[in-house]
């Protein structure tokens, strides 16, 4: 029985409710009056229910779809401006006891090199990332009780925050590790993590159990209720995601939004981010073996629907996506992208080792961070290395309140310019620096408040003198 606030996975992701939603969406895919009504509600920028958003996703009327894209773009500009926050994944260990059939780290894969970073190796990885200009990381590790226990993850977080190399610093560490206990989430919170990210992979319970035939991850309820435990452990920024291609995308989309509604209903705060990975080729994995792969157009439509359904939730795409796909979806509401990612353990310190054979998946966008930064600016976006909210304690509902009142735009924009200026001073190639300086001059004039603008100018002068870490 569907119950949005229930603590039980099978009640807040009720299969019958998902199926009824899909029937409803199919039945109204050409219902112009209803589609207009939903688009009008979306234009209020207060979000949509999973049923409403699913109708938009199923829409078969081209003019309504065009309207959806226009609205997604406008909402993205209203809530996030033209900035794109940059981050990099950092793989700590690919030891894993699970058996996810779509992931090369699965326990039975014998042709992949197993690795776990020592603290000395981690230091080298982080310095390599700092030398590129990264300030925000997403830690990744397989699930392994003896190789990657929570103590190891905590030690790594501590090491990362402690590394100061030239002007570099990692200012926000997000963590993507296996579902765990409230107690361990509390330890992660105390270690100062930013967002706790856990992809659901698929919300379809039967498929989930088939795709995870063994290991602790096999337990659907344990995995699906992880965000509830994280919140009870004091982590109020959580990141959802599904791996598109495993199950039907419309099922995943409806359930993903039901999960977001559940967090809002049960804890008063929705997800901080939603990630939209698609299944990719990797060692021992062939995406063609999964019948539910989605084409680029469907992917773009999903991004647009997420943007209008949960306007306050950041949306993340990774280097799994090609430059062309990224260009297509950035204006539709993506707020964070990774740059120059390595998906192997130790891959930043040893770039000449082309992913060795320990990579989790093939990366489609192989450009350097500097190339990505220059490309974003050429496309009219502001690459941002901002981590201010987290460090000012603006997380969870406080962050949401700020976002919902649109006040966030008063600090995101100048913060993006300040952190970009740091990047340009410390890491950029001459051409990128020139491009960036012109962009900052132009974008400064768009800061509405005189006081904020003047302060931003003063901070920029400080950065030029070698000072760092200004923020609003
Ligand atoms: Fe392990 Fe995660 Fe890969 Fe599953 S997806 S095999 S849990 S690393
Ligand atoms: Fe993100 Fe906050 Fe920085 Fe805005 S000010 S970019 S919301 S960290």
Report on the structure:
This is [FeFe] hydrogenase H-cluster radical SAM maturase HydG. InterPro entries: Aldolase_TIM, BATS_dom, FeFe-hyd_mat_HydG, rSAM, rSAM_sf, ThiH/NoCL/HydG-like. Keywords: 4Fe-4S, Iron, Iron-sulfur, Metal-binding, S-adenosyl-L-methionine. Residues 275-383 form the Biotin and thiamin synthesis-associated domain. This protein is α/β, with parallel strands linked by helices and 472 residues long. The chain has a domain at 406-464. The chain is 47% helix and 9% strand. It has helices at 9-12, 15-27, 32-43, 50-58, 62-80, 119-132, 150-162, 182-190, 205-211, 220-224, 226-232, 249-267, 296-309, 323-329, 369-378, 388-391, 396-404, 408-426, 430-444, 450-464; strands at residues 83-93, 136-141, 172-176, 196-197, 238-241, 273-275, 314-317, 336-338, 382-384. Strands 1, 2, 3, 4, 5, 6, 7, 8 and 9 form a 9-stranded parallel beta sheet that branches. Helix 4 packs antiparallel against helix 13 and helix 18 (408-426) packs parallel to helix 20. The model has no long low-confidence stretch (mean pLDDT 94). One iron/sulfur cluster is lined by residues 96, 98, 100, 103, 105-106, 142-143, 178, 217.
- Strand percentage lies at 5-15%
Reading the helices and strands in chain order gives HHHHHEHEHEHEHHHEHEHEHEHEHHHHH
Q: Output the number of helix runs.
A: 20
Mean pLDDT, nearest integer? 94
Strand element count: 9
Which small-molecule species are bound to the chains here? iron/sulfur cluster
How helical, in percent, are the residues? 40-55%
Low-confidence stretches: none
Structural class: alpha/beta
Pfam families: BATS, Radical_SAM
GO molecular function: 4 iron, 4 sulfur cluster binding; catalytic activity; metal ion binding
Protein name: [FeFe] hydrogenase H-cluster radical SAM maturase HydG
Region (Disordered): 340-362
